[in-house]
Input
Amino acid sequence: MAAKDVYHDSVVRALQKDGWTITHDPLIIKYGLRNMLIDLGAERVLAAERDGKRIAVEIKSFLKPSPIQDLKEAAGQFLLYDEALEDSPTESDRLLYVAIRETAYNTVFNDDAPRRLLRRGKLRLIVFDEIDEVIKQWIP
Output
């Protein structure tokens, strides 16, 4: 089992405060002959008469000396995991998000090149405050 991200528990608590139920910790997805571990699976019932939403969350700390290296790794994981979810017979309805600290978001996504990934739908983010353990933004 892979080690949990340093902000794993903060993201769990932030999602729970936002009304999500953690269903998998980690969410294991079969992709070809391999199993991939996405940090979290969660769901949220919006209302009794509406279908629930299901998400998968990969938590990234963005603590490396190079923010571009962190971004490359996060975007690569997102692409691979998103494909695996889409092909999964049981998890294809989950939307994948990368959870990132607000401070890292303000640093890494402060220029046009990384923002283009978001505008083009190549990456979905959950921006969280690791101190207050709350969700600040869902992008998109």
Observations:
- Helices lie at 8-17, 67-87, 102-108, 112-119.
- The chain has four helices and eight strands.
- The mean pLDDT is 91.
- The beta strands are 21-24, 27-31, 34-38, 40-44, 53-59, 95-101, 125-129, 134-139.
